[in-house]
Model the fold of this input.
Amino acid sequence: MTADGYAQVQTAVGARVERVGGVYWNRVRRIFCRPLLPHEALPPGVAEARRAGCAGFQYVVADPQAANSAMGFIVLEREPDYSLEAVSHNRRRLIKSAAKKMEVRPIRDLPELQTQGYAAYRAFYHRTRYNYLASRRREADFRQWAAAQLQDPRATVLGAYKGGKLEAVSVAFWVRDTLVYASHFSGVEALREGASELLFHALREAVAGTPGIAQILVRRYQGGNGMDQYYLMRGAKLIHKPARLQLNPLVRLGLWICRPRQYALLRDSSRFTR
Done:
């Protein structure tokens, strides 16, 4: 998938994506932007066009001398020899236990994803209140999101099924040499029975057999929270990259006073390494 294709998919599901200065930017907050592919370094001067209409933005730079901040990413490098035997004894036990109760396979049936997937998402949202693309809690918006996931053949949409019913969903997009881990959700029972372990293992197996993928971009580092630790404990690596942070002075002051931890994380993600 090209960056253009990825931008189209993300726009279709409600992300606020804009092309400025030849770069796709994602408006992750009402007044704050990052590149749609945040791990990729931008050349000098490209981001200057982003100043208009955005009170703050941050992007990775190739030259550390141009950096005034650092961005952290949790990544998994492709492991050609990855297999179930490669994981720790405890992880292997959890995956085997989950595999006895559930089956992982690609989701190809759109109505199935729109109905059974919606039930799993609703249970996930009520449990976590995860607010990214939270409009999916409305059935019409979820149906639109589901259709966008299945429209590109280079999207990896996996489901965990129990008794033929879809109980958990993972979505990833192959963009250039990176598999972007975009979404995962499950119902309460599926979570207890190890659906997350099983789906993540299946995704790693798929990447192991795909030479064109160099890495999985799991997520942007959030300062060592529970989900950060979940993936780090499963073999992912934390990488800090030099970045450039631009903030409107009033926004900077507001963050410093009202959200000091978030401001510190923006300034230097490596300070929050555990």
About this structure: The chain has two domains: 3-70+242-272, 79-213. The chain has a mean pLDDT of 85. Residues 110-128 form the longest helix (19 residues).
